[in-house]
Structure formats: C-alpha cells, structure tokens
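Changelog-adjacent note: as of this version, every example in the card shows the full chain rather than a window. The one below runs 340 residues end to end.
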Amino acid sequence: MGVSLKDIAKRAGVSVATVSNVVNGYRPVGEASRERVRKAIDELGYSPNLSARHLRNGRTGIIALAIPELNNAYFAELADAAIREAGLHGYTVLLDYTDGDREKELLVSEGFRAQIIDGLILSPVQLDRVDLFNRTSRTPLVLVGERVHDVPYDHIAIDNVAASDEAMRHLLDIGRQRIAFIGAQTDANRMPAHLRLLGYREALRNAGLDYDPRLVVTTDRFGRADGAAGLPQLMALPEPPDAVFAYNDLIAIGVLRAAVELGIRVPDDIAVVGFDDIEEGRYSTPTLTTISPDKASIGRRAVAALIGRLDGSREAEPEEVQMPFALVTRESTLGRPASA
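Full-length structure tokens:
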C-alpha cells in the first residue's frame, strides 16, 4: 500500500493537517515542523498524487505547447525547457504541431483540446491581432515568438531586429563588405524572417553600404536544403558575397555543406553566421557563429507566466517580455584558433 499523509504525520510527530499544508503549500508552516515533515517524506518514500490534486482544483494537470515545426532543433530545445519547467510545477506538457497552418492554429487557440488541457503556450505563424482579440476560448494563453504584438496575452519574445543587427555588426567588424542574407520570405505572416531581414538592411545602412537585392535569397522553408541551394546561386553572381547571414542555423549548416562541395573555404573565402544556437552548430565543421536566444529562459518564462495565470499568482495586466540573446562567435567567422 502507498504511504499516506497519516503515516507521514505519525513519523514526523505532527498533525495530518500540518503534513497536508506542507505537501500542498496551503498555509505557512513553522520551519522546524516543515523539516520534520520533509524528513519523514524522504524516509517513507512518499510521492504526492498530482492527478488527485489537479482534480480537486478542477484541472487536468496538462498544458499544451503548440509549435509550427517538429524537425527544427530550435523548437525541440524550447520544448525541452518548457517540459522541464512544467514538471517542477507538477504539470505534464502536451506537444501540438501546427505546421504554421492557419486553420490548425485557430483550432488550437480556440480550445480544440480544452477538455484535456488547463492552458496553452502557442507559437503562432499565421494568426494576427484580430484573430487573437476575437478569441472566444477561456483557456489561459501565453504566446512565444514574434508573430503578433499588442495583444491581451502574455507574450515572450526576443528583439529579432536588434539580434540581426548584432550579427551583421560582427561580420562588418571582421572586414566583410558584401554580406548576403539567406532565408527571406514572400509570406507576409513569416514575421521573424521579415524582422531579421529588416535588421540586416538597417545594419548595412548604418555602415554606409548599399542594399543589393541580388544578395538576398528567398527560400521555400528554413532547412538545410535551402541553405545548400542558396549558396551556389550567390556564388554565381559577378560579385559574389564574402559573408552570409542565414535566417537560422539549419540554413547556415546547409551553406557550410555547399561551401565544401564548391571548394569554398569558410571563413577565409566566405564567413557564415546563423541564428538560434542549436546544438548541431556547436559540432559542425567549422563550428558555427550564431545568435543565441536564451531558449531555456524563454521556455521557463512562458511556463511560469501560464501557471501564474492558472493558480492566480499572476494578476498583472498581460505584458510583452523581451528575452535576452547573445552573439556566440566560433570558427565560421573567426577561423580555428592557432595551435598552442
């Protein structure tokens, strides 16, 4: 039979009510009594019945994370952070996949799984402000990513324009003058791509360099194949680039592969910068210079905001939170360090 609160109370020499307050965090308990209860819990190997606790609160103990891509390591790492944080609060995370499809995003945002989830974290691609203002579902919602702004929901994001400007300034600082951008999009809803291209253009303007549309490659998606196809197109120009700023690390890794096939040395002939700091870029050849969003903090902050809405501890007006990022310099722009 399982260990009961009564068993813990007997071992700790306190009342069952005191044990319940410690386990559930209902009321303050003196430190001495709390320590006795914790020691008894450890000795007896007690595990709280989280399902029963959630049911008493009228909840399922499940939150959903809806992402547009499953084969993108950025979202995998973001999901890992969210799952770990949710677990600390006794919640299970249900992953939902939208493929950036408007109808799927609407279904998810309007409570398609409302009977089995307590709250939703959504990374929208197609939904706009009107969609979100007209949302009828009462399931608490937190947004991540750059698709929409000024909506009545907590929104966790990074400044894509500033991050792109930092990547570009690094390339300019190491002497690159003809910098290409791979990953532009024709779909107006692909907001991060447009914001990163905006940062690219602003950095050129601030450096006194002309914008050359021939150096901007539009891609179908954001994968390795797009980068591998984009570099040969650029190198065929009468004046090829001496650097590439890629929309994300997957495109950048495709560029690195194409460079090998074309006999182009990285970074001697062309420097490469990515975006997202996925693990693959730390082990590519050469290793990849990239913009590193704090994915762990984004995941934790989104979960904390959602749980705060669920348990009533977060009563402030919804806010847009800009999370930190950093430029991580590696071999694709600086070369391999000299041997000692």
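Structural remarks: Residues 8 and 40 are 6 Å apart (CA to CA).
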